[in-house]
Amino acid sequence: MAALEPGLLVGLGMAAAACLGGGWWCLQRLAQARLLEDMPTSRVRSAAQGYVELYGVLLAGPGEPLTAPLTGKPCLWWRYRIEEYRESGKSKSWRVLESASSEGWLGFEDGSGQCLINPVGAEVRPARREVWHGERRHPQREDHHGLLGQLLGMGKRYRYVEERLHAGEPLYALGEFRTSGGGRQGLDLAAAQAAVVREWKQDFRGLLARFDRDGSGDLNDQEWRLVRLAAQLEAEDRHRAASGAPELNHLRQPQEALPFLLSCKGEDELARAFRWQAAGGALLCLGGALAGTWLLTQGW
Q1: CA dihedral over 29, 34, 35, 36, signed as positive or negative
Q2: For position 280, what pLDDT does the model report?
Q3: How much is the pTM?
Q4: Is 139 in contact with 109 (CB distance < 8 Å)?
Q5: pLDDT the model gives residue 276
Q6: What is the pLDDT of residues 223-235, one digit of tens each?
Q7: For labeling, which of 21, 40, 105, 116 is most exposed (least CB within 10 Å)?
Q8: 84, β-bridge pairs
Q9: Which of 238, 225, 223 is nearest to 191 (CA)?
Q10: pLDDT for 22
Q11: Which spans are transmembrane here (predicted)?
């Protein structure tokens, strides 16, 4: 077999990337679709600690009210993207200049109870999405409304995309559920004591001031025993204070490699969308395999 030309090698690399990427995407989305279909819906009041599926309504979170950065509309969560239209010869594309999303906590209720949601790390699928065009990198908030602005925007240099979550909208949530306060959390005394000692060690001068009885500038065995005893008592006091606090439910990103989803669409619609995306990944994988096979035949 003759040596492969550099251009052919590049083509084979792209075909292999398409095949592997499409296959990975297909398997991931199929697994997520099956997970959504098999996961039972929990209620906040009776939800087990761990990975759960919830369905309810969005509420305002504990922080300051949010305002969407591009439109100025009040909301509970926002995500935006600013793109610039680029032309280079025959190549035309939109290039992302800016993108960001809010990280404030969301409120949620399902009729049985309430919980707070930390959206950091979530795949968020909101119901509200606005797209418009303009001549400035940062849009004027009053200029994005109206059919005429949308029609005239086709020739504009910048494209703006803003997505939002609002109070009262339905929310499907899949994530890690935890409850603090209300006397529900147990105490691992050894771990809690070690955590207090580590915290105190960060201010070693303060630790010496409290427990260096002989003024040697170090802690001997007897003084370390006093440190551990004091840390144990501190850990017990902190546990009692936390147990006496009102019960508070949280939903957050799972520590394991599990989906973290927040969507205004229901479970069935999400699972259907994931299956269509899996089909797209399968087609990409097949196309990459066929392209790679054809390129290899050209190299012989």
Answers
A1: positive
A2: 86
A3: 0.65
A4: no
A5: 84
A6: 889 989 999 998 8
A7: 40
A8: 95, 158
A9: 238
A10: 83
A11: 6-27
Contacts of 201 (CB under 8 A, 6+ apart): 207
Evaluate whether 134 touches 143 at the Cβ level (below 8 Å).
yes
Q: What is the pLDDT of residue 1?
A: 45
Nearest to 239 by CA among 298, 274, 188: 188
Alpha-carbon torsion, ordered 121, 125, 128, 132, to 10 deg: 80
**Distance between first and last Cα of the chain:** 6
Report the C-alpha gap between 116 and 112 in whole angstroms.
14
The answer to whether the beta carbons of residues 227 and 197 sit under 8 Å apart is yes
Q: What is the 3-state secondary structure (H, E, C) of the chain?
A: CCCCCHHHHHHHHHHHHHHHHHHHHHHHHHHHHHHHHHCCECCHHHCCCEEEEEEEEEECCCCCCEECCCCCCEECEEEEEEEEEEEECCEEEEEEEEEEECCCCEEEECCCCEEEECCCCCEEECCEEEEEEECCCCCCHHHCCCHHHHHHHHHCCEEEEEEEECCCCEEEEEEEEEEECCCCCCCCHHHHHHHHHHHHHCCHHHHHHHHCCCCCCCCCHHHHHHHHHHHHHHHHHHHHHHHHCCCEEEEECCCCCCCCEEECCCHHHHHHHHHHHHHHHHHHHHHHHHHHHHHHHHHC
pLDDT, residue 153, reads 47
Q: What are phi and psi of 254, to 5 degrees?
A: -65, 150
Q: Which two tokens stand for residue 244?
A: 């006496």
Positions of the chain with pLDDT under 70: 1-4, 6, 140-155, 181-186, 244-245, 299-300
- Which of 247, 252, 240 shows the shortest CA–CA distance to 192? 240
258 neighbors 31 (Cβ within 8 angstroms): no
Task: Phi first, then psi: give them for residue 190, nearest 5 degrees.
Answer: -65, -45
How many other C-beta atoms can be found within 10 angstroms of the C-beta atom of residue 108?
Answer: 23
pLDDT in tens, 42-56: 999 888 899 999 999
